[in-house]
Specification:
Number of domains: 4
CATH architecture of the largest domain: Up-down Bundle
Helix content: 40-55%
Distance between the termini: 69 Å
Shape: elongated
Bound molecules: adenosine-5'-diphosphate, magnesium ion, zinc ion
CATH class of the largest domain: Mainly Alpha
Number of helices: 21
């Protein structure tokens, strides 16, 4: 817009220039006549030098007998006869002079009188018009801000496909809960007849990528109703009040299309706890949230409009949202377990040609902790990899490679390590792997590699054998030892450490802090939470509440973290020094082959995995 304004100003400047030069041309034509004063004229009349006087409105144009031209400016009101009287010109002398009262030619009159007044006026008006048009343009945009950008799709379509429950694998309980909503939308009378109230708001809760958005669409698809969706972050705009008006607009539109689903994705962006936070966006959020609450309270309970909302941060939601009559139903979506993972993989493999060797169960086994979105991504990466290798069926190798890619980022074969770096990395990773193998509570090693991936120079993949919901302290302690094993090994072998261990140290510190402050696993500190979950919500809450413990406790926490990591490092060191020969064997194979898979690794170490 700035650029446009500048351009317009330039255009006007150019126009002004052209017009003023036209004027000066016009002046040049007039210059042929000499301008004189009245006394000169009087004298010339008396000397009988004048042949002709033309009287116009604004001037006397004099033609001398010798054909010279002169002009005298005159006021439009003055008449020639007054002039004659005032200057006491002898009428007899005038007899020889031809006096013509010239009518102003229409054109000249307009040019002379109107142009100097009207043209600048026109220019100014034009300029103002342009300016206002631009401002209006901005205004129009501002007006549109108020309209919700809700996307409206028929029956929960994605692209031109209708999503239904069969596209959502796993999440059995969630689907059962939502089946009820589908029934409400399909046969509202059945429920209303019995005096049942149609639920108004359903909140979908779950980690990112667990299929909340997908499931919301599927509800609309199952019920065959219109689907309006907007994301919470779209409410939060520059202008205060825009969010609220969008909410109003969205609800108004949805109410015209009942039965329908109105889906507010990522509602935590607006639905955070009120009364805290800093900065202007906070006011906006509050207004938007209030408007959502007003709308949800405001519509007729028999309206067949159901509001679905999704969030992965239920802990930060304003309690007002969760009150009865608003989002009083909550549906939890868990990360998929092994069976669900297999089912999700099957859903996404439907349109991909899998080779007969590709066993999705194996893939499911290898992907604990993956979300539905991660799994979809794995299969997609596998398809891409297959295409790049010019094969027409996806083999299991491609899928397994894609797991690592999703987990750790792409392999960077171009990012070559020097001979020295390779050696350090090999020892570092061998240390991790050895300690993981020999610590009974640590997860078994699936793969070691010194091919750099993402930001890491090398990596050791140790994954749990099965899905676990609960974790013991002994597992955490062994995990800590594994995390520090790379650092310890580098120190042991090269007597100094590289930056490669930095990330491990950060993870180890965070893990030990969690042990103490969140899980009550410290022997020294009382079993309570220090800091609380809100600590992580930046600006979301009153800052004073972030630290709910004293300075003295803070010192104790620090001391405990120190103790945990020092102990873990000592345990790792013990394993490394006692198994130096095994370590050297792993390093030798690693330097030679760059990656070692699970079975070969066990062979190289020479003892089976330590188990509890
Ligand atoms: P969320 O909204 O919970 O972050 P999405 O619904 O956007 O997650 O999921 C992203 C993608 O992951 C979906 O489009 C789908 O391809 C895949 N996905 C996630 N969960 C499932 C599931 N249970 N079944 C099938 N696909 C899933
Ligand atoms: Mg989502
Ligand atoms: Zn490491």
């Amino acid at each position: 817009m700035q650029k446009n304004l500048f351009k317009n100003i330039l255009i006007f400047a150019a126009a002004l220039l052209v017009i003023s030069s036209l004027f000066s041309l016009y002046d040049v034509q007039n210059e042929k006549a000499k301008t004189i004063g009245v006394p000169v004229l009087v004298q010339q009349i008396n000397n009988a030098e004048i042949a002709k006087i033309e009287i116009t409105d604004s001037s006397l144009d004099v033609i001398l007998k010798n054909d010279e031209k002169e002009t005298i400016a005159k006021e439009a009101g003055d008449t020639f006869s007054e002039l004659v009287k005032n200057y006491q010109i002898d009428p007899a002398k005038l007899a020889g002079v031809e006096v013509v009262v010239k009518e102003q030619s229409g054109f000249k009159f307009w040019v002379n009188v109107l142009v100097p007044i009207v043209l600048p006026l026109l220019l100014i008006i034009g300029f103002i018009w342009f300016m206002t048009r631009q401002v209006q343009g901005a205004n129009m945009q501002a007006m549109n801000f108020g309209r919700s950008r809700a996307r409206e799709t028929k029956k929960g379509q994605v692209g031109n496909e209708i999503v239904t429950f069969k596209d959502v694998a796993g999440v059995k309980e969630a689907k059962e809960e939502l089946q009820e909503i589908v029934e409400f939308l399909k046969h509202p009378k059945k429920f209303l007849k019995l005096g049942a109230k149609i639920p108004r708001g359903v909140l979908l809760l779950g980690a990112p990528g667990t299929g909340k958005t997908l499931l919301a669409r599927a509800v609309a698809g199952e019920a065959g109703v219109q689907f309006f969706s907007i994301s919470g972050s779209e409410f939060v705009e520059m202008f205060v009040g825009v969010g609220a008006s969008r909410v109003r607009d969205l609800f108004a539109r949805a109410k015209k299309h009942t039965p329908c689903i109105l889906f507010i994705d990522e509602i935590d962006a607006v639905g955070r706890q009120r009364g805290a936070g800093l900065g202007g966006s906070h006011d906006e959020r509050e207004q938007t949230l209030n408007q959502i609450l007003v709308e949800m309270d405001g519509f007729d309970p028999t309206t067949n409009l159901i509001v679905l909302a999704a969030t992965n941060r239920p802990d930060v939601l304003d309690p007002a949202l969760l009150r009865p009559g608003r989002f009083d139903r909550r549906v939890f979506l868990d990360l998929p377990d092994i069976n669900d993972r297999e089912a999700i993989l099957k859903v996404h493999a439907r349109k991909k040609p899998l080779a007969s060797d590709a066993n999705l169960r194996h893939v499911a086994e290898r992907t604990p902790g993956f979300s539905g979105a991660d799994l979809a991504n794995v299969l997609n990466e596998a398809a891409i990899l297959t295409a790049r290798r010019d094969k027409n069926k996806i083999n299991e190798t491609e899928i397994l490679e894609s797991i690592e890619k999703v987990l750790l980022g792409p392999e960077r074969q171009s990012f070559l390590l020097s001979q020295d770096e390779k050696k350090v990395t090999a020892y570092h990773e061998a240390g991790h792997a050895l300690v993981a193998h020999l610590m009974p509570h640590a997860d078994p090693v699936h793969k070691i590699s010194i091919v750099s991936r993402g930001r890491a120079a090398g990596y050791t993949l140790n994954l749990p054998e099965e899905d676990r919901r609960l974790h013991r302290k002994s597992e955490f302690l062994d995990d800590l030892a594994v995390l520090l094993a790379g650092y310890v090994t580098e120190k042991e072998i090269f007597s100094e450490v590289t930056t490669g261990a930095g990330d491990d140290l950060r993870k180890a510190t965070e893990l030990s802090r969690d042990l103490i402050t969140r899980y009550g696993m410290s022997d020294k500190l009382s079993p309570r939470i220090y800091g609380g979950a809100e600590e992580m919500i930046f600006l979301g809450r009153d800052i004073r509440e972030q630290r709910n413990y004293s300075e003295r406790v803070a010192e104790q926490i620090d001391a405990e973290i120190d103790r945990l990591v020092t102990d873990a490092a000592a345990r790792a060191k013990e394993v490394v020094t006692e198994n130096k020969e095994r370590l050297e064997n792993i390093v030798k194979v690693l330097l030679e082959k760059e990656t070692i898979e699970k079975d070969e690794f066990v062979q190289v170490v020479g003892v089976p995995k330590a188990v509890r």
